[in-house]
Design a protein that fits this description.
Elements lengths: L12 E4 L5 E10 L3 H11 L7 E9 L2 H10 L4 E5 L7 H11 L6 E5 L5 H6 L4 E4 L4 H19 L1
Parallel strand pairs: 2-3, 2-4, 4-5, 5-6
Antiparallel strand pairs: 1-2
Helix pairs in contact: 1-5
Keywords: Phosphoprotein
InterPro entries: CheY-like_superfamily, Sig_transdc_resp-reg_receiver
GO biological process, one term: phosphorelay signal transduction system
Length: 154
């Protein structure tokens, strides 16, 4: 189920910052069954996770089915999946998306703890950030994946 305030996904584009540098605008799909986790991710990433990356839109999903539908029918530059979501965890969902979606966007998984990095590798995630969420690590990971973006790989 998508959140009522979720905005429609759009393809990445670039704008110019005041200093003349290019700013990549990205669309992010965020999956967690826990609204507080979704809120924490959005707050920690912010509107501008890096000087050259701006989040133009967020699409929030609370179920794996909503994520699959959104990814099949939309265009996202970054997917953020909560590995602790239930009943379908973000790690298994990541592996499924990487194996079933042609030109799958880069995926950041949120693991339960730092020692779960091996699970992120198994899931074929591009990057992982453990709970408790570190705002700097989270924003940095979203910015890095946003630079890669779906548009660059499509």
């Amino acid at each position: 189920m998508t959140a009522p305030h979720a905005s429609a996904a759009s393809s990445a584009s670039s704008t110019t910052a005041r200093d003349g540098s290019a700013v990549r605008q990205i669309s992010v799909l965020l999956y967690s069954d826990d609204v507080t986790t979704r809120d924490a991710v959005r707050v920690n990433v912010g509107r501008r996770p890096a000087r050259d990356v701006e989040v133009a839109s967020w699409r929030e999903c609370a179920t794996a089915a909503a994520v699959i539908e959104a990814v099949e029918n939309g265009h996202f530059d970054v997917l953020v999946l909560d590995g602790e979501a239930a009943p379908t965890g973000g790690l298994g969902l990541c592996r499924q998306l990487k194996n079933e979606i042609y030109s799958c966007p880069p995926i950041l998984v949120l693991t339960g703890r730092p020692q779960d990095g091996w699970l992120a590798t198994w899931s074929q995630a591009d990057l992982a950030v453990p709970h408790p969420l570190d705002p700097i690590a989270l924003a940095s990971a979203v910015a890095e994946l946003g630079r890669r973006g779906h548009a660059a790989t499509a």
